[in-house]
Protein 1
Amino acid sequence: MSVLKRLLSDRAASLGAAIILGLVLVAILAPWIAPYPGDVTAFHLADRLQPPSAEHIFGTDRMGSDVFSRLLFGARITISIAVIAVGVSVAIGVPIGLLAGYYGGFPGGFLMRTSDIFLAVPQIVLAIAIAQTLGPSVENVILALSLTYWPFWARLVYAETNALKKQTFVEAALALGASDLRVMVLHILPNTASAIIVRTSIGMGATILTAAALGFLGLGAPAPTPEWGRTISEAREFLPEAWWYAAAPGLAIFLVVMGFNLLGDGLRDILDPKLRKGSR
Amino acid sequence: MFVVFFISNVVPTDPARIVAGENATEAQVVALRTEMGLDQPLYVQFGRYIADLATGDLGKSLYTQRAIADDLLHRLPATLELTIAAMIISIGVGVPLGVISAVKRNSWIDQLLRILSVSGLAVASFWLAMELQMYFSTKLGWTPLNGRIGGWGPDEITGFYVIDSLLGGDWASLWDTLHHMLLPAVTLALPAAATLVRFTRAGVLEVINSNYVLYERAMGFPTSLIIWKYVLRNALISTVTQIGLIFGALFAGAVVVEAVFDWPGLGTYAVQSILQSDTKAILGFSIVVGIVFIGVNLLVDIVHTFIDPRTIQ
Amino acid sequence: MTDALLTVDGLSLGFRGEGGFAHILSDANMTMRRGEIMGLVGESGCGKSTLAGAILGVLPRTSLQVRGGTINFDGIDMLSGANTRAQESVRGRRVTFIPQDPFTSLNPVFTIGQQITELMKWKSPRRAPGGVRLPALMTPYPRARRRADRDQVMEMLNLVQLPNPERLLKKYPHEVSGGQRQRLMIAMALLPEPDLIIADEPTTALDVTIQAQILGLLRSLATDRGVAVMLTTHDLGSAYEICDRITVMYAGQDVETAPVAEFFNRPTHPYTAKLLDSLPEGGGGMTGIPGELPSFYAPPPGCRFQTRCERMTEACKQRPPSDIAGPDHVVRCFHPLHATITDALATKEASL
C-alpha cells in the first residue's frame, strides 16, 4: 500500500503509470473507440494518403484506411506481444535462476553458462536470428523475444538467490524442517519480488522497442496487421509527403516505452533502496 | 548460435526448396538437398557446421554464392566505422552533460537533461532515423540521403573510409564520408548518449560527496579542476564498464539504422539475408557480432584495470 | 585580542533536512592567535567538525543555511558566498587542512606524487599571486618553480619521517599504510607554508599506538614554523599533550576557553568539570555524562547544557555572556564553579 502511495507521489512514475493504464484501456476498448473499426482490414483507395483532418485525425494510409483507428488496434498487438513475451521470459528465467542460485554446483553452473551464451549476442541480433528462422508471425515474434530475454531474469534471480540463501531466515526455515521447494517458493522468491518487478517494468520497454524493430524489418506479423513497427516501414516510401503516416506510430511507440521506463525508474527508487543513493 | 541452428532445423521450412525456386521439379530439389548436405541427419549437419566454423568457414551464402565469411569481413569495417563514430558522439555529448547534470543537480538544466535522457531511451531508432532522414536529407537537402560515400571512395587500405582517406590525403572523400556518416551516427548515438548521461550523473554524484573531494575543496583547488579532472576520473570508472555494454548495443543497433540509411555494413547484409531467408548468412552474422561483442567486453576489462589502479593488485 | 589570526564570532548555522531545520551551531565563538595550538574539544555531535568545515568552506551547500555571525581570517571574510575568489586563494595556501580519515581523503586513482604536484602547482609558497587567469585545466606549471617545489617536497617528506620518498611518490594511496598517509597529509598541510592548519580529529582513524607519534610530529613541526593549529578532538588526553589553549564546545555553543594548565586545574563551567570527571584514570576517551544531548531540531533556548546541569536556574534560558574566570580564561555560565570577575564585582558592590 505504501509503495503505491509513494509511487503516486513521484510525478514521473505516476505519469508513466498513467500512460500505461491509458494504453491498456485503449487496447481493450479499441473496437468501440476507434472511429473506423473496420479499417484494420478494409480499404478505400479513393481516400488514400489524406492528411490529418476532422474525419481522420491522424490522416489515412496507403490503402485509405484511418491511421488513428489502426493505431488503436496496433496497441492491442503491442500490448499482447510485450505482456506475453515478458511473461514467458519471467516464467522461464525465474525458476532457472532460482534453481541455479539455490543448488549451485554443476547444474547451477550449467544453467548460468547457458544463459551467458544467450547474453553473448546482442538481443536484437538474437531475436532477428530466431524470428527469421521461425518465419514472420506474431506468435513467432513472441517466441523469439521470450527466448532472447529470459536470461535477464535468470541472472537477476540467480544473484539474489545466491545472496539470500546464506541469510539466517533461510537457515532457520531449513532447520525447522521446511523442504527445499518450500524454502525457495515461500522464503526466497518473495524477497526477490521487488527486483523482478523493477526489471520487468524496464524490460517491457526494451521488449516493445525490439518487437517494433522486428516488425520494421519485416519479421513481425504479415500485412495487413496494424503493428506499429510494420506500419512505420510501410510509411517509409511515402515520406516526406505523408509525414503523419509514420509519425503517428513512431510517437505511439515513444510514449509507451517512455511510460514503462518512467514507471521502472520510479519503482526502482522505491523498491530498491540500494540503488537510490545515486539517483538523487 | 547453436540455439538458432537447432531451431532452424526444427522448423518445417526447406532451404533447398526456397533456393530451387517455386517452379523447380521435385528431382531438382532433391539434388540440391544432397548438394547442400540437407539429407544428412541433424547431428551430422551440426558437426559439419562446427567443423567448418573452426576453420573460419561460415558456409556459402544461398544467393550471392560467395563465402559468408568473406561477405561479412568485407562489410565489417563499414559497421565498425559507423559504430565508433556513434560511440565518439555519445561519449562526447553524454559524459559532459552527465557531469553538468550532477553538478547542477535539481536545477532546471538537470531536470531538462533528465527528461531528454529518458526520452532518448524511449525512441525507436529506426523511426528516428526515418524522421531525421526525411527532414535533413529530403526536405532540407543538408545531408546525403543514404549510403556511405558519393563517389568511388578513397583507395581501400583498411576499409575504414575515414582512415583510408586520411592515409591517401583524399580530403574530398574524407569530407564526403563524414557528411554521409553524420545522420546515421547521430541517430545511433542518441540512446547511448542518454544512457551515458544517466550513468555519469550517478557516478559523479557518488564521488562528489567523498572525503577526497572534500579534502580537495578544503585545500582550495580550483572548482573546475576538481570536477573535470578529479571527480570525472573516478566517476568514469563505473562509466567505462557501461561503455562496453553501450558499444555492444550500438553495434547491434546499427543493424536497424543501417537498413534505413542503406549503409553497406553488416546490418544491411543481415536485413537482405532476412528478406531472402538465408539462414546460414544470418547465423554467420550473429556469430561475427557475438565475437565482436566478446572482444569489446575483454577490451573494457583491460581499460578498466588501466584507469582504476586499485584493481591491479 | 589584537594578535587574532582567525575570529569566529556569533556563528549560527544549520541544515535543512527531512526532520526540519537542524540547529548545529548557535552563537559559536572562537579565536585563534598566531602560532598557537588550540584544541577545540567536545563530544561527537557538538559541532566542532561543522565549525572546521565552515572555516574551510566545505559544508554541503544545498542544505546549508547560515543564520548569522562572521568568520574572519586576517581581515578576509571566509563565510560570505560573495567572496569565493579571495577564499579560494586563502584555502590551501594560508589555511590548510588535515582530514580526519587519511584512508579516504586521498584520491584513489592518482598517485601520491601526482596529488602533491597538483597541490604545489596551485598552492606552492613560490607561486606569485595574481597574473593571468587561465581555465584551471590549461594553467601551466613553470619548470623552474616546479624544480624548487620538488626539492621542498622531498625535504618535507624527510621531515615527516617518511622513508624512501622517491618510491612513495610513485605509489597509489591504497598501497600505503594509514600512519604513513597521515604523515603525508601533515606534509601536504605544511608544504604551502600556511599561517593556520585546521586538523579535524587527525588521529581518530589511526591505531592508538601511532596516535601519539603523529600528534607529536604535528606539534613539533608547527611550533618550529610558527604555524597555528586548530585541533578538533574528543580526546582530552591528546588535547592536554599538545595544545596551548583549549576551547570546549557543547551542542553548538562554546562554553569555556582557557590555557591548557588553567583548564585542567580550574575547570569553571559545569560541563567542563563533568567532562574532566568522566575521564577514566590514565587519560583516554570519555565515558559519558548522565543525560542526552538536546535535540538539534528543537534545542532549548539559552544555555544548551541546562537539560543536564544541576545548577540550572531560570536565568539559564538566556545565553550567558562571556565572563572572565582567570587570566585568559573565559567562561559562559551564570553559575560557574569558581569565582569570576562578575562575582568579584558583585561582592565588591555588596560590601560597599
Note: The CA atoms of residues 323 and 342 of chain C lie 7 Å apart.
Protein 2
Amino acid sequence: MADITPPAYRSIPIIPKLIPGAMEGKGPFVATDKINEALGFPGHLVDDWHDKAIAKMGDLLTRFRSLKVYMDACVHCGACSDKCHYFIGTQDPKNMPVARQDLLRSVYRRYFTLPGKLFPKLVGARDLTREVLDEWHNYFHQCSECRRCSVFCPYGIDTAEVTMAAREILQSIGYGQKYSLEILGKVHKIGNNLGLPAPALKDTLEGLEEDVKEATGIDVLFPMDVKGAEVLLITPSADFFAEPHIDSLIGYAKVFHATGTSWTLSSMSSEAGNFGMFIGNYDQLRQAALRIRQAALELGVKRIVVGECGHAWRVAYSFWNTLTGVGDGADANDRFAQMLQKQLDHRYKQPAHICEFTWDMIEDERIELDKSANDNLIVTFHDSCNVARGSRMGDYPGGQFDIPRNIIRAVANNYVDMDPSTTHERTFCCGGGGGVLTDDLINVRVKGALPRMEMLQQVTDMQKVNFMACICAICKTQFTKVMPIYGFDRRMVGGVHQLVSNAIVLGKNK
Amino acid sequence: MSSIEVGGKSYETDEEGYLLNLSEWNAEVADYIAKTENIDMSDQHWEVVNFLREYFEEYQIAPAVRVLTKSIGKKLGADKGNSEYLYGLFPYGPGKQACKIAGLPKPTGCV
C-alpha cells in the first residue's frame, strides 16, 4: 500500500486529461471453484464461455426490458463522460461511463442487431473474444454502481444496471469476482457478510452493554433473538465489528432505550447489506433478502428498521416489498409474504430507516438531546449514493437528503454542507461501493475517492470541518482506509448515529 | 494457489498471503508473514496475535475491533486499549493485518 499515492487535487474541477490504458489490468481476484459452486455458479471459466455468455446476454435482454432500452438508447452525447469519480480519479477513457458501457454495448450490437451482424465495423460492433471478456472483468469492477452518471443522462440510462448485467454474464460462465461471491456464500451459510456466528455476536453485544454501562451508568440493552420484540433491527454486520461503525450501533441502541422501544437483532439474519444487487443476480438478491423475512416471522416483530447501510436501504426501500413482503406488492400467492404483511404494524412505514425512526422521535420530543456534547466537532455530511439516488426517506421527494441533515442539526451546533455540485442527488461515491471495497482494488478505491476528498478538503480549509458523517458501512470503511492517504485523520469519519450517541441524554425517559 | 516457504516447509496461502490451513500456523510462519508486511514482531505484537488466536479458537471468527481493544486495555493498561495503539502496531489496520499474521482468515464484508 505504501506505493499508492493519491492523484493531485484539481485546482478547478475540470475534465481530466486522458491517459488511455491507465487502468488496464487483470481486475479483482476471480472467485475460486469452492466459492462459485457454493452459489451454484460454474467453478471456473467454462470451455464454451463464448456461446454461454452470448446466450446469457440474450436471456438478460429478454428478461429485463430496461437493459435492452439502455443498450439501444445511448446516443453518445457525452453528458455522462466526466461525471464518474473513477474516470476523474484514473483518467482512463474507458472509465467514462459511456465508454465503459460500450464495452458491453459493442458486443450487444454484434450479436443482437442487424447492422452489427452485417457490418460490424461500421457500427462499432465487436466479437466477444477472450480479450473483451478480460476487459469486462477489469472495467466493470471499476464501477461502483453509484448511478451519478445516470443523473446527467438525458435518456435516463441506468448505468448501474449495465454493470450488473456484465457481472451477471461473467459469473454465469465461472468468471465472477471473489470478494462479492465469497461474501454471499457467508450470508447463506452463517447469516452475515462477515461470517460472524451467533455466539460471537452475542459476546460482542454483551461487551457493548458493559461499555455503555461503564460510560453512562445506564443499562442500555443490545438484545438478540428476542421473540415478541416490537422492532427487528437489520443492520450491516460491520456495525458489530468495525470502527467507527460500532459507535452508530451504540447510537441506535440508545435511541431505542430512550424511547422505550422494545427491539431485537436476529442472529440468523444479522446483515443488512445485500451483495446480490452488486452482482446483478436476482436469485442471490432474493435469497439474501428472504433471511430477513424468516427472522421477522420467527420473532413475530411488528416493525422492521434498517441501520446505516446505503445499499441495504436501496434494496429494502426498492425491492423488499416484492422480494419478501416487507412493504406492499408481493405476489398474492406468496404465502409467507402475505403472512408477514398481516403481521407488521402498518401505522408505521415498513421498512423504516433508522434515520426516519430517530427523526420521528426527535420531532415528537421523545428524546432529550444535549447538542453541546458535539461542540468539539464541525460536521459535514456525505450523502451515500444508494440512499441519495436509489431510495427515499420520509414522505416527500428529497426526504433522504433532509432527514439525516435534520438529525445532525438537532444533535450538533456546527454543520456545513460541502459544495452543492457534490451533494444530494449529485453526491460522489466514496469510491468503494458496489463490490469495489476490497484490498485487491485499493488502487481503484484511492483514485475513485478523489472528487469527494477535494470537496472535503475545501470545507476543511475554509470552514474547519473536522467530522464527516455518513450513513453507510461501506462509506465508513472506505473513508477510514483512504483518507489517511490523502492526509486526513481517519477519525474524521463516523456515523450520524455516532453523533446522536454523543448527544442523547439517557435516564430521563419521556 | 500461492504458497510460502518457511523453514523448509511449504504453506498454502490465498492470493493475498493469508494462510489457507489454519492448523498449520506456528510462530515461525507468523514471523515470516509479519516480515512481508514490514512488521518486526515485538512482545506487544504477540500479545495481540495470541489474543486473536484464542478468540478465534472459541468463536471461529476474529474479534470485533472493540472486543480486541478492550482485552488489550485490560491486559496492558487503559492507555493501550484503543484503536490508535493497535494502528501503531499494525498500520494497515489491526483487523486485517493482525489476522493475517495470526493465520486467521481475512475478515470480509464492509470492513
Note: DSSP finds five helices and two strands in chain B.
Protein 3
Amino acid sequence: MAFDIDKYTTNSAAVGWSDLDFDVFDEHPLPENTLRTLRYMCDIEYHTTCYLRDLLTTPSHNEPEVGAFMTMWNREEFWHGEALAAVLAKHGITVDYDVLKATRLKLGWKDRLDPIKQSVMGGLVGNDFVAVHMSWGAANEWSANAAYLRMAELEGNPVLAELLKRIAKQETRHVAFYASQARDRLKDSKKAQKLTRFALSRFWGPVGSGVQDDAEVTHVMNHLFAGPEGRKLVRDVDSHIAKLPGMEGLTIVEDSLEKRGIAA
Amino acid sequence: MTPRGTTAVDEFDVREYARTARGSHRAEIDGEAIAEAGLTPDAVHLLRVLRDLERGTLDRMRNLLVTATHKDARVTAFLATWAFEKYWVADALDVVLGAVGADTTPLSGPLRKSATERAERRGPVRRALAGNIAGEDIVAGHVTTGLVDELITQVAYRRLGEAAAALTSLVATLIAVKDRHVAFLAEEAEHKLAASARAVRLTRKALAQAAWPIGATEIPASDRTFFETFVFGDAEGRTAAARIGERLAALPGLGAEGATVTARLAP
C-alpha cells in the first residue's frame, strides 16, 4: 500500500509523556542494565540528525514526499531522545546537549568523511543508491520497533511500557515509509537490488554500532535479544527484510547476533 | 575568551522552543476570504518565491550538517524544530496560492551566476571538505548567515502583509514563528563570535560569499530580481536593509560586514 504522506505529516507529533507519572521511578527505580540500554536508545534517537545528514547527501530529498517525511521523522526521533532523557533524568542520569556533543566529537574522522563517501557513492551510483538508504532505514526502524516493544515487555514497569509503546507506534509509521520506498525502488531495478543486497549483507550492523562503543552494542543486544524469545523477534525482523524485492534469504540481524556470540 | 557555558548564560530555551513548535497553519487560513479579496500579481509572485525558499530548508540542513555544525547538539535540536516549522510555513503559503488559483509549481528559469556566489553553489562534497578544515568554528558562520536570512525573510513577510490585507493575520503568525528563529540564531552568533577570533574570520568569509536570502542561488534570476526590488527596492525597503546591516555590524568582531550585506540586499 502506498504511504500517505499528507496523513503522516498532518499527524506527526512530538511523543507525549506529560500524562505519565514518572514519579513512579522514585519508588521503583529501573535496574542498572535497563538504564544502560535506555541510555543507548536515547543516544541513538538523538543521533538521527547524523543519519539525516547522510540521507540528505543523496538525490532522494529533492522528492517532495521524501523531504516531507525526513523533516517529520527527524523531529519525531529527536523527541524520542527527549522522552528517554526524561526517564534517565529521574534516575540522576543527565543527557544534556553538551554530553551529546562530546559523543559526536569523539567519532572523529570516520564521521567527517561519511558525508563525502555517501555523496560520492550517491553521485556514482545515482538513484539506485537511494534504494540502499531506504532499505537500510527500513531494517533500522524494524529493529528499533522490536527493541522498544521487547524492552517494554522485559521490564514490566507499566509507565515505562506505555512510553515505549508510544515510541514504537511512531517507529511503525517510519517502517511503513521506508519499506514502501524501498519496495518501489527495488522492484524495478536489478541493479538497485544487487547493490542493496551487497550493502546490507556486508555493512549493516545493529542500529548504533559504529557510533556507540562495541561493549554497549553487545550489552543491548544481549539484554534485549538473548534467549529463544529474543531470537524469535530477531528472526521476525529478518523475515520482513527478506520480503523486500531481491533480499530473499537475508538474515542480517540474526547474523549480527551470531557475530557477537549472543546465545539463542 | 571564556568557553561558552561558564560565564555566558543561555537565555534561549531550546527545549521549550522544541516543545511549543508551530505545526500546520491550515486551520487558521480562511481560503474563501482570501479568494474573495484576491491577491495582486506581485503578492502571488512574492508568495511563490518565499514558498520555494522555505521549501529549500533541507538543502540548507544538508549544507550545515556535513560540517561540524552537526556535532553541536543544541544547534541540531534547534534545527530539527526549525525545519519542521519551515515545512509548515511553506505549506501555509501553498494553501494561500491554491486558494487564489495561482500556479503552485516551483519557479523555474535560468539562474543568476555571479562569481561572488560561487561558493554558495558548491555541492555537499566540497562543503564537507571545506567544513572539515574549518572545524567547529564554522558553526558561528552558519548561525550568523542564518540570522541574516531570517531577518531578510521577516522583512519580506512584512512587505507581503502590506501588499495583501487578507493575509495580515497569517503574516503576523509567520513573523512570530520567525521571531524565535531570530532569537536563537542571534544568541548563538553572539556567543560563538565572542568566543573565538577564528570564528569571526570564518564568519566574515561566509558573509562575503553568501547569496541572500539563503537558497537564492536556486531561485531563477528574474524572480530573485523581483524579490530584491519588491522587498528592498523602495525607501522603506532600504531602511529595512540598513537595519539588518546595523544589527549584523553590532555582533562581536563584525563591523564592515553590515554595510556589505545591506548593499547586497538590493543590488
Note: The first helix of chain B runs from residue 14 to 19.
Protein 4
Amino acid sequence: MAQVTMTVNGKAATGDIEGRTLLSAFLRETLNLTGTHVGCDTSQCGACVVHVDGEAVKACTILAAEAAGTEVTTIEGMANADGSLNVIQQAFQDHHGLQCGFCTPGMVMSAAALLKENPKPSEAEVRDYLEGNICRCTGYHNIVKAIMAASGQDVAAVAAE
Amino acid sequence: MYNFEVETPGSVADAVAALGREDAQALGGGQTLIPTLKQRLASPSVLVCLSGIAEMKGVCRTDDGQITIGGGTTHAAVAKATAESFPGLSGLASHIGDPAVRNRGTIGGSLANNDPSACYPAAALGAGATIVTNAREIAADDFFQGMFTTDLEEGEIITEVRFPVPEVSNYQKFVQPASRFALVGVFVAKFGDGVRVAVTGASNDGVFRWTDAEAALSANFSAEALGGLSISDDDMISDLHGTAAYRAHLVGVMTKRAVTSAA
C-alpha cells in the first residue's frame, strides 16, 4: 500500500492505494464519490469521465498513482456553489437529456470539457466530441440538444435525424 | 488486474534505471496497456509511469525544418501543436480514439506498442520519421518489425520522434467504430524527391509501405495515377469486421482519398 494525495473537487484527498488501484476505484471506493460511474471498464463507454488538471480523461483508464498531485473534478464538483444544478446539468434536465441516467455523469463531464475548449460548438462538433460517451437510452438527440442549449444556442435547429 | 508496484520517475535517466528492475514495464498514456492489464494479458511486477517526465513532452521545430515531438506528448497536444505546420499529422492525431483517449494516449506509447491497426505507425512510416530513444536513433523503415513488434530493446524508451515535414500529406482512416481503430488507414506524404504511402490496419505484418502506389504517385501525384493499381490480399487481416479482400480494396480507396485531400 502506498499513500496518494490529490485535490478532488477543490479539497485535498488522501488515501491508501495499491499500485493497480484505478482513479475510478479511488474516487468511488476510497472517497465514496460514486457519481463517477464505471460502465464498461474497457475504456469505451465514457461513463467514468472526470477532469484531471482540466482535461477530460477516463477514470477507469488511469491509475490513481498517476493522478497524484493533480486537480481532479468529478460530477460531484459540477453543481453551482449554492447547490443548484449548473448550466449543463440544468440543460440536461430541461431537454430530457437522460433516461436511465447511468451515462449522464460522463456526458456532463465531456460536455463541460467541450464547452471550455469550444464555447459555441456546431451540432456536428458536439456529436463528434461525444464519440467516446455511449448512451443506450436516448439515441443522443436530447443530449446534443442539451449541450447546444447549455452553450446558449438555439436548439430548435437541432435536426431530429 | 494482478497487482504491481508503480514507479513515477521525473527524468528519462530515472525511468531507464527503474526499467532495469525485474519484470518492469513502461507505462505511456496507458490507453492500451491499462485495458490489457485488466484482461490479465500482461502481468508486470513494476510499472514505470512515463507521464511525469517533462523532458519527454512538447512539440518544436528544429533548425533543419523537422518537427520534433516528445515521446510523452499526448495525441491532443500533437493535434493542436501541428495544426498549421503539419496538417496531415494533426488530422491523424485529432481522430485517434475519442477526446478522453487523446488526452492521455501518447505518440511514444502508440509507436512502441505498434498495434497493427493503430494510426501513428502510418504517420511515422509514411513521413519517414526518426524514432529517437534514450540509446539511439532508429529510422521508421527499420523500426516496425511486424504486429506488436518493433526494433526497441528491453527497457528502451522512445524519448522523441522527428518528422520531416512533407510538401503535402493526408491520412484517411476507415474507422472500425467499436474500437475506433483503423479498419484500414493510409498516410500519404509528398516530398520534393518522391511520395511515400504507408498503410495500417490491413496487414498481418502491421504497418507497411505500398511501394507500387509510391512509384505511381511519384510520377503523377493524382488519384487517377492509382487507377490501374491493386494490392494483393495474401497477407491481409481477415476478421469479423472485414475480409482480407475487403481490406485490400479499402487500401486503394483510402489511398485515393488521401491523395485527393492532401494539403
Note: Chain A touches chain B at residues 2, 18-20, 22, 41-44, 46, 49, 55-58, 61-63, 65-66, 68, 110, 113-114, 129, 131-133 (CB under 8 Å).
